Structures are given as structure tokens and as C-alpha cells.
Amino acid sequence: MSLFTRLSSSYFFYFAILGLISPYLSVFLDGKGFSSLELGEIFAILTATKIIAPSLWAILADKTGQQLVIIRLGALLALLSFVLLFWLNTYWPISFCLALFCLFWTAILPQLEVLTLNSVRHSSKIYARIRLWGSIGFVALAIFAGQIMEYYDQHDLSNSLISSFTDAFVLMGSVILLCLLLSTMAIKPQRVVNKVQKQTIAIKDKLLTSRFIIFFIAGVLLQISFGPYYGFFALFLRDLTYSGLAVGLLISLGVVAEILVFIFASSFFKHFSLKILLVFSLAATAFRWLLVAFYAESFWLLAFTQLIHAASFALFHSASMVFISNHFTSCQQSRGQAVYLGGVYGVGGAIGAYVAGVLWLDGLGASTAFLTASAAAFVAALLMMFLPKSESVKVE
């Protein structure tokens, strides 16, 4: 098995679980009888684990150089935490169990990104091709889980062992996490080099530059804008009477567009500056949420907004990885990734989830939630326009 296959399979299963949880966790929690406010609180709790946990894992990774061990440990503990959902039904036990899952799950991606970038010698072209397998995994599970959701909506399976979508949700997640653990076992460890140097170079000065601060705040605002989408989009579509297949296809459409961006990412960096790509991504996202707020009843306009996901996530993520890779030295990469993923996705995601839960009002405030999201992304685009210039990005 080649290095490309090993890394790609880990991305596939990592993002496959995201393809299940991101769209359908709200459906799972709704099936447990929780209100939209409680959903927002749970999403905020889960996302808040990303604020501290990635940095703790990254400090350990930078000091030991054992990224692969941490990836495997995170996958194992995430699996054990998720399996517990089979036996839980009330608010606090489920919240605690999901928080534990996120605590361990967040250990995986920053180290996997560093391991992959080092393995491919920071080639954005090869990285993008490996990373797109994560998008494929997301698509596969989003469509499959949508079909499963529709199947349970149309059939009474109360007497069967897996009697509801909530049971099927946990089963699917457990199987995917097991596959993720097995895929990480196939990756060969890298040699640990220059451990002493990794322990001595501080990261504080890089975090306090105006360039990083603007990038960081804009990223937080972008993640705030994703609150209604990540938390309630599948429920939103179901309430608008879209079928399970339509829900899966709409969610997957955005990821298909995202895959195309990952494939051709290097071309964008050759023709446009990093700043232009970041500003465009944020402005497109603001336009996307504006359309969702007013035209969600139209399947084709909603499909168009999902195509914008190519800019909202894939282009912004690719540009962010280049930014982080260039901004931090080689021995600061794990901590740089952790600050980005923990701060931007943790702080921004937690705020976005909670605000979306407050505004949603069990579906009555959906338009208000997406308008607020549009405003957050627009402010982020304006802020990113003040990003100081830097040296041109080298793309292999």
C-alpha cells in the first residue's frame, strides 16, 4: 500500500464521520426530543472543546514528535466515546459523551495535516489530491445517511434492533470510526528529527503579528457564519419537505464543488494572491447565506448556494493551509495548526452554534439566523481586505 493510499484513506474516514455528524447530528438530537435552543447549546459545548484540546495535543506532538501515535490514540478514544451513545438518552449524558468524542477527535486532524504536509514535502498539488479523498468520504456518508433517514421516516421499524434513525446514526458513526482507526494503523511512522529545537522555538511572536491577527479574526467570523448551516441545515431542509435523497444530494453537491477546488488549487495560487483568494472566499460566503435566507424554497437556487461551498470552505481552507505553512516555521507547524483549528473553529464555531440556536426558534427564525450569518461573513471579507501583503506563495 502506497503512502498516498494510506494518507488518503485516513482523510476519507476522518471526513466521512464529519459527513455524518455535521449534517445529521441535529436530526439525531431532534430524535431525542431536544429543542433548538438545547441543540445550539450542545453544538456550542462540542465546538468549545476545539478551543483548548488541539493546543494541548499539539504541544505534546511538538515535544515528542510522535504525531502518528497521537492520531491513533485520538481515533481509538473517539471511537470508545461515540459508542457510548447507544445507551444514552438525556441532555447532560449525551452532551458529555459528545464533548469527550470531540476532545479526542480534534487530536487527529492537526497532526494528520502536519504529517501529510511533511510527507509530501509541502507540495500543495499532492496535498490537495490527498485531501480531496476527505471530501469524497464526506459525500459518500452524506448521501448514504440521507437515504437512511428517509428510510426510517417512511417505515415503522419499532420492533427491530436498530429501530430509529438515532440508532442507525450511532451505528454508522461507530463503524466509520473503527475504519478510521484501522486506516491510521497502516500509516508508517516518520523519523523524529531535531527534537531539542522543537522544544525551544516559541510561537508567541508569530501569533501577535498584525497579519496573523487579521487572518485569525476573519476566520472566526467565517466560522460564526457557518453556525446555522452546520447546526441546522439538514433539519431546515427536512422542515421545507425536501426528501432524504434531496437533503443528501444538496449537502453533497457543495462537497463535490469543493473537490474540484482541491484538485485545481495549485492553479489558483499561481494566478491570484493569497489575499485575493481569502477575500473572495469570504465575500462569496456572505452572498451564499443571503440567498439561503430568502430563497431556500427553490431547489435550484439552493443548489447554486451549495456550489458556493467551493469558495466558502475549500478555497478558504486551502488558502489557510498555505498561510499557516508559510507563517510558521517547520517546528511550529503543529502548534500553528492547533491555534488555527482550535481558535478559529473552536471559538468561531462555538459562538456560531450558540447564536444559531438562540435565533433558530425551532425553525421560525431560520431566515434571521442566515441573515446574521451573511453579515458576519461580510464583515470578515471587509477585515481581510486589510491583510498586510507578504511574499508571493510558492506552489509546487
> What is the CATH third-level topology name?
Growth Hormone, Chain: A
Tell me the radius of gyration.
Answer: 20 Å
CATH hierarchy class name: Mainly Alpha
From N to C, what is the helix and strand string? Answer: HHHHHHHHHHHHHHHHHH
Q: What CATH architecture would you give?
A: Up-down Bundle
Mean pLDDT: 82
Number of strands: 0
> Helical residue percent?
over 70%
- Low-pLDDT stretches are 193-198, 391-396
**How much of the polypeptide forms β-strand, as a percent range?**
under 5%
Q: Specify the biggest β-sheet.
A: none
User: SS-based structural class?
Assistant: mainly alpha
Instruction: Give the overall silhouette.
Output: globular
Taking the alpha carbons of the first and last residues, their distance comes to 24 Å
Total domain count? 1
Spell out the CATH superfamily: MFS general substrate transporter like domains
The helix tally amounts to 18
Explain this structure.
The protein has a single domain (3-384), classed as Up-down Bundle (Growth Hormone, Chain: A). Residues 193-198 and 391-396 have low confidence and may be disordered. The chain has helices spanning 3-31, 36-64, 67-83, 91-105, 108-119, 124-154, 165-185, 195-200, 204-207, 210-225, 227-239, 244-263, 265-271, 274-295, 299-307, 309-327, 333-360, 366-384. The two termini are 24 Å apart. It is 80% helix and 0% strand. The chain is built from 18 helices and no strands.
